TrEMBL record:
Enzyme Commission numbers on file: 1.6.5.-, 1.7.1.17
Needed cofactors: FMN
EC class: oxidoreductase
The keyword S-adenosyl-L-methionine is annotated on this UniProt entry: no
Quaternary structure and partners: Homodimer.
Key words, A-Z: Flavoprotein, FMN, NAD, Oxidoreductase
Protein name: FMN dependent NADH:quinone oxidoreductase
Catalysed reactions, as listed in the record: N,N-dimethyl-1,4-phenylenediamine + anthranilate + 2 NAD(+) = 2-(4-dimethylaminophenyl)diazenylbenzoate + 2 NADH + 2 H(+); 2 a quinone + NADH + H(+) = 2 a 1,4-benzosemiquinone + NAD(+)
Annotated gene: azoR
InterPro entries linked to this entry: Flavodoxin_fold (IPR003680), Flavoprotein-like_sf (IPR029039), FMN-dep_NADH:Q_OxRdtase_AzoR1 (IPR050104), NADH:quinone_OxRdtase_FMN_depd (IPR023048)
Residues bound to FMN: 66-69, 110-113
């Protein structure tokens, strides 16, 4: 936990401390199976911790590079641990209802090429779907693209992303 201008900031680096991948036994634990193994109990406790962090957050900031047109596997592992029926969402007669207290999400994404708004950008729609599914409807995307392209194009895109972050008052 860090403090920044009087605000509490919780940072979870999924690359430095990867989460376990969800498997069949883990899925059973997250769905409320009885008589859990130690590994299942640990996964359930981790899921509860991650969900608690989300429920305490006013704003969720996700930094996600685009890998092969999608999110990194570490972020997918986090999503699998926080998407829990009856805990972070529920099914109703009117459809899915998100249950998170988090009010806003900012997704900062880097890309080697220019993919925003093209069929190659599968991660934007995926993350919008997941976040709204959980109840976070206020989602802002910040794109830093063309990072493997010419120097001028790269610098222009980085400056655009910096300006957008400053406007959002998000410190990266």
């Amino acid at each position: 936990m860090q403090h920044l201008d009087g605000e509490r900031v919780m940072c979870r680096d999924l690359a430095a401390a990867p989460l376990p991948m969800l498997d069949g036994a883990g899925a059973q634990a997250l769905r409320g199976a009885s008589e859990l193994t130690t590994q299942q109990a640990d996964m359930l406790a981790l899921s509860e911790q991650l969900i608690s962090e989300l429920n305490q957050a006013d704003t969720l900031v996700i930094a996600a590079p685009m890998y092969n047109f999608h999110i990194p596997v570490q972020l997918k592992a986090w999503i699998d641990l926080v998407c829990r029926a009856g805990v972070t969402f529920r099914y109703t007669e009117q459809g899915v209802q998100g249950l998170l207290n988090t009010r806003k999400a900012v997704v900062v994404t880097t890309r080697g090429g220019q993919h925003k708004g093209t069929p190659h950008d599968m991660m934007t729609d995926y993350l919008k779907t997941i976040l709204t599914f959980l109840g976070i409807a206020d989602i802002e995307f910040v794109y830093a693209e063309a990072l493997h392209m010419s120097g001028e194009q790269k610098q222009t895109e980085l400056q655009r992303a910096r300006e957008q972050l400053e406007a959002l008052a998000v410190i990266v």
